[in-house]
Design goal:
Number of helices: 7
Helix content: 25-40%
CATH class of the largest domain: Mainly Beta
Shape: elongated
Distance between the termini: 24 Å
CATH architecture of the largest domain: Roll
CATH superfamily of the largest domain: Urease, subunit C, domain 1
Largest sheet: 4 strands, mixed
């Protein structure tokens, strides 16, 4: 099925998706006229190639992401350091569930690729199942591990024939995205699938 994604603040960069592939990138009016049968998804803000999070190991293997049912006991923020290691030692099965929740948090921040050497099967499986790309870590890391690292690492531009992998942020332009961070994500698409949509 053809789907045409367009964001209000970047109508010149609409994306036509055919299955898991980008069929075309260009002005919304041109793409809609060429393929009127395409389903249209309208978003606020800007449509971008999405983000690379360079902290794959730190966020998916070195942190425990509590289940919402554990919020009373553990809170909702990621747990790191010795406390996370103790939780994993006490129950190794927590690693897989934590990695999956960590990936969901990444998707909610417009992440379409991760970097860093993942060693554990749980994190590798979570990344593979979600369809996240694996990229190279920048030579200098931007700061502490975060779902919205500073500076943000935007991926190269979208092109026809490439995998349908991108994110939409509810900001007026890229300068505002840099200023406000990845928490402004409203949608993430991987392999042509809408894997995150802000309610």
């Amino acid at each position: 099925m053809l789907t045409l994604h367009v964001a209000a603040a970047s109508p010149g960069s609409a994306v036509l998706v055919d299955g898991a592939t980008i069929a075309a990138v260009g002005p919304y009016e041109e793409l809609a006229a060429a393929r009127p049968e395409a389903r249209v998804r309208r978003w606020p803000g800007i449509l971008t190639p999405g983000l690379l999070n360079p902290y794959g190991p730190e966020l998916l293997e070195g942190a425990y992401h509590p289940d919402p049912r554990e919020a009373d006991e553990l809170g909702t923020d990621p747990i790191t350091g010795e406390r996370a290691r103790a939780l994993f030692r006490a129950d190794p099965a927590r690693q897989g569930a934590s990695a999956r929740r960590g990936v969901q948090r990444m998707l909610a921040h417009g992440t379409v690729a991760v970097a860093g050497e993942l060693r554990g099967r749980a994190a590798l499986d979570a990344v593979r199942r979600a369809g996240l790309a694996v990229g190279h870590r920048p030579p200098t890391l931007p700061g502490p591990a975060s779902f919205s690292p500073r500076p943000l690492v935007l991926l190269p531009g979208l092109t026809a024939g490439a995998p349908a992998r991108f994110a939409v942020f509810d900001v007026p332009d890229r300068a505002a995205l840099v200023r406000l961070g990845a928490g402004t994500c409203v949608a993430t698409v991987l392999g042509g699938r809408l894997v995150h949509r802000r309610a």
